[in-house]
Design a protein that fits this description.
Length: 179
C-alpha cells in the first residue's frame, strides 16, 4: 500500500476525458484501488478520482464521514465506483460548499442536482443501480466531473467565486476563529 501524489488543477490529465475500465480484475486496477483508498484517507477527503493521481481511467472512490470541512456529511464506508453513469436527475439543483484535493485551499458554492439515479460497477465487477440524494449525490457528481475533465471551478460562473479556505471558515463558523 502506498499513497500517491495528488495532482493539482492545470495538469493536462485533469482536463482530459478518462477511459472506461475493461480489466477490473487486473493487478494494476486492484493496486490502483488500494492506493486511491489510502491516498484519500490520508488526505481526509470524501472522494478521489483516478485522474487526480495521473490515471486517466473511469474510477473513483467515495468515502463520506463528518469532518471539519464537511460537518454534516453522512457516514459511508469507502466505495469503489467504476465506469459510472448518471441515468436520471430530478432537475432540481442546490448550492453547497465544495473543495477539491486538486484545487488546494479553495472552496466555493457549487450547484448540484439534489437527487440522481446512477449506474456503476464495483471492484468485483458487480453492476449497481442506485438513487443518491443530498451530500452523496454531490460527491458523485463532483467525482464524475473529474472523469470528464472538469473540476468544481469550471462549474462556477466566475473562477473568482471560489474563496480561500480561511475566508470560508469565517463564513461558516465565525466564532471558531477567535484565536
Ligand atoms: Zn475533486
Amino acid at each position: 500500500m502506498s499513497t500517491l501524489t495528488i495532482l493539482q488543477r492545470g495538469e493536462p490529465v485533469l482536463s482530459a476525458i478518462a477511459k472506461p475500465i475493461h480489466n477490473i480484475d487486473s493487478a494494476e486496477i486492484k493496486q490502483l484501488i488500494i492506493d486511491l483508498k489510502s491516498t484519500v484517507a490520508l488526505a481526509k477527503g470524501v472522494g478521489i478520482a483516478a485522474p487526480q493521481v495521473g490515471q486517466s481511467l473511469r474510477l473513483f472512490i467515495m468515502c463520506s464521514a463528518p469532518s471539519e470541512r464537511y460537518p454534516d456529511a453522512p457516514l459511508l464506508a469507502p466505495s469503489v465506483i467504476i465506469n459510472p453513469e448518471i441515468t436520471h436527475t430530478n432537475n432540481e439543483q442546490e448550492l453547497g460548499w465544495e473543495g477539491c484535493l486538486s484545487v488546494k485551499g479553495k472552496r466555493a458554492l457549487v450547484p448540484r442536482y439534489t437527487s440522481i439515479e446512477v449506474k456503476f460497477l464495483d471492484e468485483n465487477g458487480i453492476k449497481h443501480a442506485q438513487t443518491l440524494t443530498g451530500f452523496l449525490a454531490r460527491i458523485f457528481q463532483h467525482e464524475l466531473d473529474h472523469l470528464d475533465g472538469i473540476t468544481f471551478i469550471e462549474r462556477l460562473d466566475h473562477e473568482s467565486d471560489a474563496i480561500d479556505e480561511q475566508q470560508w471558515r469565517n463564513i461558516i463558523s465565525p466564532t471558531k476563529n477567535c484565536d
